[in-house]
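User: I've been going back and forth on whether these two constructs are worth ordering. Before I decide, could you fold them both?

Assistant: Sure. I'll take them in the order you sent them. The first construct and its structure tokens:
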Amino acid sequence: MERFYTGVVRHRRLVLALFLLSALACLVLRGMVRVNYDVNKYLPADTASTVSLHVMEREFPGGIPNARVMVRDVAIPEALEYKQRFAAVPGVEAVTWLDDAADVTVPLAAMDKETLESYYRDGNALFTVTVSEDGYVDAVAALREIAGDTGAVTGTIVAQADSATGTMDEVGLVGAFGVAFALFVLALTTTSWLEPLLVLANLGVAVFINAGTNLIFGEISFVTNASGSILQMAVSLDYAVFLLHRFDECRQEMPHDPQGAMVQALCKSTGSILSSGLTTVIGFLALVLMRFGLGRDMGLALAKGIAISLITAFFFVPSLFLCTLRWSDKLRHRPFVPGMGGFGRFVRRLTAPLAVLFVLVIAPAYLASNANDFYYGAAQMYGPQSRYGRDTAAVEEVFGRGDTYVLMVPGRDTAVQAALSADLHELDHVTSVISYVDRAGAEVPLEYLDEGTLALLMSDDYSRMVLTVDAPTEGDETFALVEAVRAAAEKYYPGTYYLAGQGVSTYDLMTTVTADLANVNLVAIGAVFLVLLLTMRSLWLPVLLVLGIETAIWLNLAVPYFAGTPIFYITYLIISSIQLGATVDYAILLTDRYREHRAALPKKEALIATVSGTAVSILTSGSVLAVVGLLMGYLSSNRLLAQLGLLLGRGALFSLGVVLFVLPGLLAASDKLVMFRRQTAEKQEAKGEQT
């Protein structure tokens, strides 16, 4: 290993040039990576709603309605004119209104009240619009312009458009604040004005390379695109920090040989950095096991990012530090952070009560973390203060909650379709059904219907029914409605029908992601445990470290339960792997230093030396992770991203608390188990030397 690092140090200028060129190339490639803003696209290909969408796209023109547009204070003729204007917008595939479900030439009082009020109420018209995935941002903007300031536009495609236009601006703001805070913390915890810039330069190179190489995936989700770079920066900051602090220690021992000091620093810190990086990579890779494709999307991109950060830590960082050492030394300043010996003694005095408290909260935290209420789909992605939230509230105030399901059944047997339609009309929350048998009647021959209407309702092999429902896109009543519609279709067309819609996709999303939880968590915990077992050569230490971080995760996820705040299940699912992978590094560093000090010092002195010696490194990385996460939580208007950031930031604080205040006491309390393998190895080495 020493020979390898000597070669890296010797060829540092070449290494530096290669990484800088790679970063510049990937900065260009980054703009070529497509971003997907529809979480339903990540449902498994064999999910019923996904299969239904594919079949419908093949059989019928237009897709599933994905927007609701309300226009205020219009008469019937004016509403029909608005319908034509909406239909003429580029990217709009279909517009449905009252004239598609009833004869608008008859007096309103003669119409079915429930059908009428689904589309027209108190002078307000509600249009159901299907917007294409191509150019949907411009299409949504045009719909809003036509609807006017008093109108309202809502729906899943609108939420996607708002995410596409607003998310990256907010992420850029979070990134700017995060970089500024990282500079501030690094300026406090380093001894040269140049070192913070060098650490951030390393992070920038790693982030650019990762973002550019995402091109190999072709497309990434907006969650990965928005949070990936921020997470990579916050999680991998400690690799360069750990190495920098080791380098400073080694330079004190070898003041006239900076290259030799760097080689020694690399050799001494490789174990901690590599095990920290591997556990993080594995924690992220566990997300790949999710059937819900968003996990695979995030897992691969984040794991690749951490792997790239590890590579830069072992190659780019030492090369950069040594090439700029002359200027770094000229810009030396006195340490701003006082010695942490007092903090170490303070922690030692609290070890016993904190260890007891830790044991007492494990079970309640675990139970509470598993008792949360959840959001599964994208309906709650924007809060009531956003434009999307205000428009949604405006539509629901007049017309109530609403969604559109599309049911496709085989054949053209109008008698069977009429029976099915009658059953569907009887279901709670179904307010109207548009189909051939509802539009023309089962007794009207097909040739009497105009070709345009017929093409929307019948293909060569299938008939289509469009259901308007007064139910939200997720929740218990929605899921019960989806099951009822499927049961009705199964009664007449067993195993041969197809049902799609936002509520249907959310139902399938719910059943998919809930099945993923056990697999992802068990694999993440097991894989991290195995890495720690191999690197630490101890059975007890992996148990202790994983239990400590898992308890911090449970405490983090227990907060929404006690606050009565529902959380997005997707966030709930991925935060466990992210927090485990991101913060187990701190526990590894502290444990390695404890064993190192314990080999030469009594237990109490070793504990104090460990805490005082690692606190700055751990707090530097942990505080940046916490602040960046909390900034994302408070600055993002997208509630899914905001919740991910909030849980990440709060989770980092819980992990910091467990590692700095609880873990030292647990290590000291189980000192014999902690040091057993190390003492055995030392005895074997001594016996070998005597031989």
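The second construct, handled the same way:
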Amino acid sequence: MAGTRVSTHEVFQNVMEIAQRRGFFWPAARDLYSEAPAGFWIYGPLGIKIKNKIVEAWRNWILKPEGAYEIETPSLLPLTIFRASGHLEHFFDKLVECNQCHTRWRADELLEDKLNLRGLEAVSEQELKRLLIEHEVRCPRCGAFNWSDVKRFNLMFLTAAGAETEEPNMGLRPETTQGSAVEFRRCYMVMRGKLPFLIAQLGHVFRNEISPRRGLIRMREFQQLEVHVFFDPEDMSPYNKKLEPYLDYKLRFLKLDDANTGKIREIPAREALESGYTINELITYWLVLYQRFFNEILGFPLNRLRYRELGPDERAHYASAHWDLEVYSEEIGWVELVNNAYRTDYDLKGHSRESGVDLAVQTDGKKVLPHLYEPSIGLDRTIFFELLLSYRKDERVWMQLPRNVAPFDAAVFPLLSKEELINKAKEVERILSRDFDVFYDDKGSIGRRYRRMDEIGTPACITIDYQTLEDETVTLRDRDSMLQVRVEIEKLPKILSEFLSGAKLEGLGEPINQ
């Protein structure tokens, strides 16, 4: 994503303003009800288009080639499931209350903002309180320096299902994983499964965040793209050949030993595996796959990506090894995009114990209780960082979005609001709409229409002018370079497809002197 960058101080607020004004996303219900709680967001028409394109890229680049079976499970599940998974016991954040205005905050985040560092989730409640006092952290809302003790706050939303039930017996899921774990046995049987067996889910999840903030980065309802790889830990043969072409591919790691310095090490997959750092061929392969997906398919610059290793005190309760794939922006710092957790047999063992049902399966003539490896994408954060990293400001404001995830593939304009030009432009729009996402606009000057499309990241603009009526050619304009070429309408679908696939505009048509 090369291009002119604006000062980091402006980027976040400018992107948030564009997102709400142009219809990517905005806070839920706030237009009518100012008291609506934070942490809930609406996806507008443009946000839905980006979301759907990222999801389809995930399906086409990961699920289909890897043979994953996609399922959909309920958002509301019995509490017995979350007792078996450990969420009722372990799924909490550390809360502190301002004794002056009674606003509640995450204690670790108050300190992280004050000290400009990350990774305080594992610090004890007593130590967090001591640090708040030592560093004179004040309430961001009222400015008071008067804190309660830090206490644990469970993040699950609990409710009761059934007219005769008064006590909570259900919970909104904080991850889609438990749905896959509970339904693993049936999926395995109906699909005549063999290990490794992959289940995938796209779904909404819910966490009662203490202080949701930073737009789509910390929400109370959000979406995950999860793959659940159930495998025999003693048989890596299916992944030996799959990993072989990528043994020299360099993974970017922030190891625990380097946490204080922030030094990122580029380690070939072969070295990471042979040293035991990435444990086995399966995990190594998936770490390669997701780094490549974000870099090569979603367009995130490699130098802004890293796998941060989580230590024993920081890992989720279910994980024996854990790497967060993080992305960097100057204003926010490093933010997790993908949770990569080796969950061993924790989930299936817990559900076997709680339900009394043996979840071991027969594979290759033996009985195995599978282990679980899970890469989980935070979809909303991914969408937000696509916009944040694409924002440009020079003589214009524009989004240098990857062509494959931009809301619209192209825009079609008549040069002037004249009937004959409008009719021809709508004819071109109909032709292109069979295969592309196309936006039509005939209001305002052509320059302003270009700028509107630049601001939302539309890669190509097609203009119908009076020459079009004479020779059936149109102008095709590149968002990034603003170069224009003349193209025959008959060839336009093929040329636009080549351009969206990465071809340079030069050579696709006759250059226009500007």
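Notes on the second construct follow. The longest helix spans residues 45-66. The first strand starts at residue 25 and ends at 27.
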